[in-house]
């Protein structure tokens, strides 16, 4: 259940634009439809509310409902942005994805350190450069906080430690007996958790 929406807290007659709501980093795993290999990373999703706000946990569910299938990163971001627009009709939506693709790490160019970054804008974010900059600055700050959580040393920088943990998660995901892409029925069961959400629908 993706739609748990509530009335927005700002007054519609106010002359001030409501602030943006940013959720992330949201970890995700997906399968590249071109090579049947995983890509994994983090998403940041933001929106500027109009008449409604959405339960915070639903932003995570929105990312993962589209990530748990064969896809490409470009389509994944478009689907997240467009679906959020359809759900609550906000004034603006921003989606930022950063992912490592095993199809470039394990085959072809064998580039282990590259990351693919994609950004998607709707509404106010498309027109307001300052709003986009505010969002991207927040994303950068959150990335720095993650890296700082893994102390650096001369042999293993914190970023490498973080990426090593993510790579281990991928190996576990691909281990025999684990299925990275649930069937539609299984996905529906996982998403139908609205009744278990804490009070307030978050």
What characteristics describe this protein?
7 helices, 5-stranded mixed beta sheet, 202 residues, 25% strand, alpha+beta, two-stranded antiparallel sheet
Which consecutive residue ranges, at least 5 long each, have pLDDT under 50?
Answer: 154-158, 178-202
- Secondary structure: number of strands: 7
Helix and strand element order: EEEEHEHEHEHHHH
**Radius of gyration based on Cα positions:** 18 Å
Strand content: 15-25%
Ends distance: 12 Å
Adjacency order of strands in the biggest sheet? 5-2-3-6-7
The outline comes out as globular
- Number of helix segments? 7
Structural class: alpha+beta
Binned, the helix content reads 25-40%
- Roughly what is the average pLDDT, rounded to an integer? 76
Tell me the major beta sheet: 5 strands, mixed
Helix-strand layout with pairing:
Elements: E1 5-7, E2 20-32, E3 38-48, E4 52-54, H1 56-67, E5 70-71, H2 73-88, E6 92-101, H3 102-105, E7 116-123, H4 124-127, H5 129-148, H6 158-173, H7 184-191
Parallel strand pairs: 2-5
Antiparallel strand pairs: 1-4, 2-3, 3-6, 6-7
């Amino acid at each position: 259940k993706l739609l748990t929406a509530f009335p927005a807290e700002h007054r519609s007659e106010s002359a001030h634009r409501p602030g943006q709501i940013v959720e992330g980093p949201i970890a995700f795993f997906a399968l590249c439809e071109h090579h049947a290999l995983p890509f994994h990373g983090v998403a940041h999703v933001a929106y500027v509310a109009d008449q409604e706000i959405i339960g915070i946990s639903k932003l995570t569910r929105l990312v993962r409902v589209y990530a748990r299938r064969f896809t490409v990163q470009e389509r994944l971001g478009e689907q997240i942005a467009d679906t959020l627009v359809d759900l609550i009709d906000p004034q603006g939506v921003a989606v930022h994805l950063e992912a490592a693709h095993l199809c470039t790490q394990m085959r072809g160019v064998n580039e282990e350190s590259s990351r693919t970054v994609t950004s998607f804008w709707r509404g106010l974010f498309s027109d307001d450069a300052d709003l986009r900059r505010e969002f991207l600055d927040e994303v950068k700050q959150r990335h720095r906080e993650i890296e700082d959580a893994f102390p650096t040393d001369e042999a293993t920088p914190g970023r490498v430690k973080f990426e090593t943990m993510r790579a281990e998660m991928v190996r576990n995901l691909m281990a025999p007996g684990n299925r990275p892409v649930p069937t539609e029925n299984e996905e529906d069961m996982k998403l139908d958790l609205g009744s278990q959400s804490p009070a307030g629908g978050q």
